[in-house]
User: Fold these one by one.
Assistant:
Number 1:
Amino acid sequence: MAGHSKWANIKHRKGRQDAKRGRIWSRCSRAIIVAAQQGGSDPEYNVSLRYAIEAAKSENMPKDNIAKAIKKGAGLDGSAERYEEIRYEGYGPAGVALIVDTLVANPQKTAPEIRSLFDKNNGKLGQTGSVSFGFDHQGEFFISSDAVSEEALMELALDAGAEDVVEEDGMWQITCPPADFLRLKEAIESNQVPIESSGITWSPQNTVPCDVKTAGQILRIVDAFEDHDDVQAVYHNAEIPVEALEA
């Protein structure tokens, strides 16, 4: 849709994250700890841990920090710290659907705080599954259209498990099932194709068009969630105008 750009939204989000690098590393560390707790410390046999490590590397998290998080999650440092994965779902202004993924040490403390953030920002917390049915869980890559030809990218991507390759705003967007994310990432990198952004995400099947005022309200509620220490990621189905990102 004219005036909307998924890549512009991603750049805006990454820009905010760059300004909060310490918080991002903390989230990466928690994800690694939980993956190691659930599946062991060897990423060769623990796919969730491999995902978490790749995500941490993409945020330039130091190797020492990654190693410490793995050791902590595996219980090799004597730590008794445990986290629980909890997904909160609900609605924001204009009926925009929101998914808030958290890693929580104390659910009794976090749950009312998340509910309060919904309430304070013209939103409403819903039941588990109330909005996630309208999203697809998938791997996603963005590559500059100047970096590789369509023919070459289609060939390597589809052979490595990609479901779709489309071009928008000077970027190739590649999607794949989560299970094929690492295989596809390795295939792209082995062909020396630079990746601008990648990750496993919840992508909306349908979007809600927003004017600049409503988009500003959505960005504020997303910011409020992302500023919470227990929140790992926030997903929504709003179409954010580029003008709102520049406001």
Note: The mean pLDDT is 91.
Number 2:
Amino acid sequence: AIIGSNGAGKSTTLKILAGIYRPTSGTSVSTGRIASLLDLGVGFHPDLTGVENLMLNGAMLGLGRNDMKKLIPEIADFAQLTRFMDTPVKYYSDGMFMRLGFSLATAVDPDILLIDEVLAVGDVGFQEKCYERIWDFRGRGKTIVFVSHDLEAVSKLCNRAVWLDEGKIKMDGDSEEVLSNYLQKASERKENAAVITASKEWGS
């Protein structure tokens, strides 16, 4: 997991890992196929149908046309979008985008899965399906990099956490230990903010 306050650099880090951004210094090295679920609709062309977008994304991930044709029924079924696969995705809701994106990212059997907060868009039932699939990934020794403000989900899914603060690593280690320190720091900041607010004088 990668945790931290807004603007800490979490999403930027994922985009560097995905190869979308280049680091201004240092290097980013990965081995194996990477599938990413970053922003809703990224990688989908609005005028193409669900099927056409899956074929396009499969080609970009290095999968042949026949391989993707075999995967499409499974992807559509998991996403609960079988009836909408011939509809241009510009008519999809955020939830439909998320379901299709997650189903695609996990169906192509990547070695590394990058997830940025988007699971929060889905309904509760689909979120549970997502978590079950992520647990299956973990069980098969795959790597998952998960960015989220949902610390309960981080605690449930991740055994390691990196705490980013203003673009720098504040702490890296066991997720429970990192979360405990992060929450303690957040609590201290809240108390300090309350003291500053209370000391202000208003009026003339």
Note: Residues 175-199 form the longest helix (25 residues).
Number 3:
Amino acid sequence: MNQVTSYLENINLIPDLVNGLVKNINKVSEEIINCYKNDGKVVVFGNGGSASQAEHFAVELVVKIKDMRKSLPAISLNSNCAILSAIGNDFDFNYVFERQVESCVINGDVVIGISTSGKSKNVIEAINEANRLEGITVGLTGNDSCELAKIVKYPIVVKNKYKELDTQIIQDVHQIMLHYIALKVDEEFKNGAY
């Protein structure tokens, strides 16, 4: 079976994968809403495709996804090339997110690390720092036995009990979940109530 055929077959799994995660996603949505009601912020990050998803999610929180509302504070830690290259050069690439978390996360902020494998060292280091600072940590991954899933308060694991999922399917489900959260946030604050 070629990769395109495999991907098309796996697309059929997406509704079941998403439905299996709705309970946890609703909890994360509630945490984000409560964070905003307590003057907190959302901090999100990842590498590669997950970096794009982190930026996309931050945009939806700051701007909106659908309903007009007040702007909400969200930061994508993979968006500033100067900071990333300075930390990578002066320290190590493993700390490009951890150093930023140290600088901006306070107790009660929601911190979301996205890693399809759950093994990204720089994501894990940042989540460890966020836990130390008493942030509310969330991990989006595709592996329930990975370190990321074990160290966050809310592991959101895209998995199938029958077969290993391709990275693309995991990322597709992550994007659906992030859109769902953004819609819940819009709905909560659309009348300016916060």
Note: The longest helix spans residues 167-189.
